[in-house]
Predict the 3D structure of the following.
Amino acid sequence: MISEQYKSMLGGKSVIRELSEFAAARGKEIGYENVFDYSLGNPSVPVPHTFTDTLIKLLKEKDPMELHGYSPSLGIASVKEKIADSLNRRFSMNYKPEHIFPTSGAAAALAHAFRAVTAPGDEILTFAPFFPEYHPYVDLTGAKLKVVPADTNNFQINFAAMEELLTSKVTAVLINTPNNPTGVVYSEETLKKLACVLTEKAEQFGHDIFLISDEPYREIVFEEKKAPYVSQYYPNTIVCYSFSKSLSLPGERIGYVAVNPECREAETIVQMCGQISRGIGHNCPSSLIQLGVAEVLDETSDLQVYEVNRNLIYDCLIRLGFTCVKPDGTFYIFPKALEEDAKEFCKKALDYDLILVPGDSFGCPGYFRMAYCIETEKVMRSLIMLEKFVKEVYGVKESV
Amino acid sequence: MISEQYKSMLGGKSVIRELSEFAAARGKEIGYENVFDYSLGNPSVPVPHTFTDTLIKLLKEKDPMELHGYSPSLGIASVKEKIADSLNRRFSMNYKPEHIFPTSGAAAALAHAFRAVTAPGDEILTFAPFFPEYHPYVDLTGAKLKVVPADTNNFQINFAAMEELLTSKVTAVLINTPNNPTGVVYSEETLKKLACVLTEKAEQFGHDIFLISDEPYREIVFEEKKAPYVSQYYPNTIVCYSFSKSLSLPGERIGYVAVNPECREAETIVQMCGQISRGIGHNCPSSLIQLGVAEVLDETSDLQVYEVNRNLIYDCLIRLGFTCVKPDGTFYIFPKALEEDAKEFCKKALDYDLILVPGDSFGCPGYFRMAYCIETEKVMRSLIMLEKFVKEVYGVKESV
C-alpha cells in the first residue's frame, strides 16, 4: 500500500525550493540576469581544472572495468588513505583510512552518522538557525530533532537555552560551523565550552553524547582565517563533510564521514556505516568521482568572490540600517528583517525582484537569508535595488 | 550512544564477500589467474566507448558549474525523458519523465520502492533462491521479508507455496527476473499467473499489493531472446533498474525507479521518492554519470561472453552428472551440489581453487552459485579442475 507517511510529506514543499522556482519563472519573463536570486546555495565558481583533468585522464587511461568496477563497501582504499592524509596534514589529526567512510555528499554522511549513534526515540540537539533539511534528515531515522533557540547577538551557542534541552534522552548534538544560514564560525571558546558541557552531561547521564559536525563550508572562511577544527575539541566527534561547496561539485554527491580516532569505538562506527548503507541503499559514491576528488583534496575552487560579495552586502546592509552579524565564512548572510514578520518582508522584496529567504524555516523568525554565491556584478546591481526597496517601503535612512 | 542494532550486524559477514576475499588472498599466493573465482557478480566486459566518449566530451565542453551543479531532487529532466523514451521504444510502454526517478543503482531504487509502498510491520514476499542482500534491504525499513520456497524443478514461481504465505499483511511482492542466482527468466505464463494471483488477493484483502521488479539483468538474455517486460503484465509494478550489469558500471552507482504509468498514483509515488531521499540521504546519483548513461540507453556492453561461458559450464556440469536448470540469462548458474550440504561441497572445492558459493544464503540449501562473469579462457581451465575435483572427491561419471 502507498505509504501515508511519505505521501503526507508532499504538501510541505521547501520554502527555498519554492523561491528558487519563482526566481526561475520570473527569469523567463524579464531575463534571469535581472532577477536578484539569493535563494539557493549553489556555488558560482568552477571546480579546479585539476579535477576535470584527472577525470579525463582516468577515463582515457584506466582499464574501464577497474575504473567503473564495484568499490569496496567501505570505500576505495587509496581514496580513504588520501583523505586521512589530507586531514592530518591540514588539521594536525591522526586519522587512518579506517576512520574514513566516503559518502554521497553530506546528506548521506549525516544519514549514516545519525543511525550510527542514535536509536529511534533518542533526541538530537541542534542550534537555531539551522539548515531546514535537518528536520527530515533526523525525523525520518526515528530520532527526534530538538532545536536550541538562537543567540541572535552573535549566533554562537546559546548555552543557557541548551542546558534546558540537554536531557538524558539526548545522545547526539549536531552543529554546523561555518554556519548555514548565518555565515558565523564557532569560536574556539564556543567549542571548548560545548566540549565541556557535553563531557559533563555524558558523565552525569552515564552514556555517551556524540558530536556530529556538519562541515560542508569548512574551507570557506574569510580574511585568510581558518575555522577551528571541531574534532580537536571533543573526542566523540563525527565529521560529515561534502565537497559540494569547496570544490563546487554539488551535483556529483561526494563527501565523507570522518570519525575522530579518539572517538569511542571509532573504527567500529565506520564499519557500522557499511551496515547502515545496506538498509538505506547507499552503497558508496561513484568510483570515478571518488578517484577524482582524491587528487584535489588540498585544493578549492577560487573562493575569493564570496568574500568580495560578503563585504559589499554587509557594508550596504549596515549602511541601510539593518541589524546584522558579520559572516566569517560560507556564502550566506542572515540579517534582521525590517519588520517583525520576515515572511512579509521577503514577500514585499519580491516586487523588486529580490529573492530573499525568510528565517522561519531556519528556526529563527524575523531574520532572512541571502545566499550570495552569485556574480559580483549582479550583487552590485541588486544592492541598488535593495536600497530602492528599503527606501520606498520602509523609508529608513538615506543613502550616505 | 552507539547503535546496538547496527553494531550487532557486524558479525554477519556476507558469505559472497568472504569467499571473494579468500579468492583474492589465495590469488596472492598462487597468482590470481590460477584461482577459479566464481564468487562475485562483477562484470567482465568493458562499458561501451560511447559512454567514455560522452563523459570526456561533457568534461571538456560543458560549463562545469552546470555540469556539476545540483540536479533537481527528482533527477535531471533530460535524463528522465530519455530513459522514458528508451523504455517506451523497447518495451511498448507509455512512460513519461514523471514516472522515472534516477537512483544510485538498484540498491537505492529498492530502498525507495520499499518505503514508497510499505509501512513498518508490513510483509514483503520474495521467492527463493534470492539475492541475499534483500534481507537487510527490506528488514532495515521496518518491513519483513518473507521467502517463498523454491520450485527447484525449473526455478519459476512455486505458486502453491506462495499462496500459503500471501496473507493480508503482504503489501508488496519482490521479484528478480532474469534471476540471480539461477539465471532463469520468468516466463510469460509465470508473470500472467502472478498478476492473476496478486489481482485476486488485492481485491480479497481490500488493499493494493505492489509488484517490485528488480531488473538489473534485464538486458542479459541468451539466444537473442528477450525477457518479458514485467510491467506489461501487472499495473501496480515498480521497476528497479541498474546499469551496473548491462553497461558494466557497478562502481558508478546508477539506475532508476520506473513506475508503471498504469500504477495507482504513479506520479505521486515518484514524488514520494523525492521525500524518501531526504530521510535516507540519497539526493540523486552523480550528475555527470546521469548525463553519461543517458547517451547509451539502448546500448549494452558486449555481453556475448556470458553466453559462451554459460554454454561451456552448463554442458560440462551436465556431462559430469550435475542436476542443473539451464540459465536463460544473467551470468549465474545454480546447480545442485553433489552432496546434501552445499557448504561442505563448496568447502571441498576450495582445495581445487574453485570458488563456488553455497546456496544457503540464497534461501536454497543444497545448491551452489557460479558467477561466470570471467574470461572464457579461465572458464575452460576451471572446468578441467572441476572435473578433477568431482572425480577425485565424488568419483562420479567418467569424462565422455
